[in-house]
Design brief:
With 381 residues, the protein is of the alpha/beta class. The chain has 13 helices and 13 strands. The structure holds pyridoxal-5'-phosphate.
């Protein structure tokens, strides 16, 4: 699905030098590389503050902890997302209120969120799924009206731009009160291990976030609140400083692949190519198609036999996962998420894809669809 080795080869000299310098300095924890990268990322995003941490899941948890929410407080979260987004809410004994998403963009909307607001609602966690922003302006207006916090889960859309009605543009992750991201290797800005970061324009929140991420201490050995230990290694920060200047070209490479796929799949019967949110650019963490539910397994099997990987993000709605049963109970299904879990599939997309590979994958997908339309391999049950 990705080509991390090919990407590394192109920047090997700089990366190797940065890693070796870091090892030689022996400042493995909280070395100057971490602060430097935080500042560089803040400048790139136009965020007041960036706080690095150990991974994108921690980033979400720390953000929620910094808001001082109380057990039982409700946090609205899309159910069509990676587990981490909702997991941390439950882990903190807050109540994840899982909502459906828009069938075209796969993202939550203000209209969907509004219906789920109760007197116990304290926060919203929109996810910028697959690489494009949820429509944030109405979400922020709704949050303001109801006095709610907004944490953007920006693990998949770092580098995307959102345009407000006024024409003002902001980077994904800098629109809500807090934004979070992940530097997991396969993410659009990936390090060579685990990493994450938290963004905010609120200096008070930034202080709390730093404190929570560092054992709740504001001064060494003085602990004001219960915190966690969540740090970005100096080596990972050094790697990210090398990669950040390439992020825009990485986004452009992914966009070019997406456009070529779009063109190849434009008129295929039963296939829906990714619909763009008009107010956001799309940085294509994933290229996700919708195909007929009864054909999907056959298409994936054909692709696999022809050496083309594909993935289903995500096969099961979060509320159907055993871990979320206590929060969901016997409530009715969310129809859009149910439908998406049966129809979506993602094709390889990355920064190192050449024309030949792209055409090979596109042709294999077209062949798979044709064969499935003629004689489906799996019948529906
Ligand atoms: C990857 C991801 C996370 C978690 O990031 P980790 O660094 O793996 O902990 C959270 N939310 C979403 C939407 C993600 O894609």
């Amino acid at each position: 699905m990705v080509d991390l080795k090919g990407q590394y080869q192109k920047i090997k000299f700089e990366i190797d030098e940065a890693v070796l310098n870091c090892i030689e300095s022996a400042q493995f924890i909280q070395g100057p590389q971490v602060k430097l990268f935080e500042n560089e990322l803040a400048a790139y995003l136009g965020a007041q503050q960036v706080i690095a941490c150990a991974n994108g899941t921690d980033a979400l948890q720390i953000a929620l902890m910094a808001l001082g929410l109380q057990p039982g407080d409700e946090v609205i979260v899309p159910t069509f997302t990676y587990v981490a987004t909702a997991e941390v809410i439950g882990l903190l004994k807050l109540t994840p209120v899982m909502v459906d998403v828009d069938p075209d963009t796969f993202n939550v909307t203000a209209d969907i969120i509004e219906k789920a607001i109760t007197t116990r609602t304290k926060a919203i966690v929109p996810v910028h799924l697959f690489g494009q922003c949820a429509d944030m302006e109405p979400i922020m207006a709704l949050a303001k009206k109801h006095g709610l916090w907004v944490i953007e889960d920006n693990a998949q859309a770092i580098g995307a731009d959102y345009t407000f009605a006024s024409g003002e543009k902001k980077k994904a992750g800098t629109i809500g009160h807090i934004g979070t991201t992940s530097f997991f290797p396969a993410k659009n800005l990936g390090c060579y291990g685990d990493g994450g970061a938290i963004m905010t324009n609120d200096d008070d929140l930034a202080k709390k976030i730093r404190m929570v991420a560092n054992h709740g201490q504001s001064k060494k050995y003085y602990h004001d609140v219960l915190g966690v230990n969540s740090r970005l290694d100096s080596i990972q920060a050094a790697i990210l400083s090398v990669k950040l200047p390439h992020l825009n070209s990485y986004c452009a490479a992914r966009q070019a692949v997406a456009e070529a796929y779009d063109a190849a799949f434009r008129d295929l019967p039963g296939v829906t190519t990714p619909v763009r949110e008009p107010k956001s650019t799309h940085v294509f963490h994933q290229y996700t198609l919708k195909v007929p539910a009864e054909k999907r397994a056959g298409i994936i099997a054909y692709l696999s036999e022809n050496g083309v990987p594909s993935m289903i993000y995500y096969p099961v709605p979060l509320y159907k996962q055993e871990a979320f049963k206590p929060f969901w109970g016997e409530r009715a299904d969310l129809p859009v998420t149910e439908q998406l879990c049966q129809t979506v599939m993602s094709l390889p997309i990355h920064t190192e894809m050449d024309e030949a590979l792209l055409q090979h994958i596109a042709q294999a997908f077209k062949n798979a669809l044709k064969i499935e339309l003629q004689s489906p391999r799996y019948s529906r049950h």
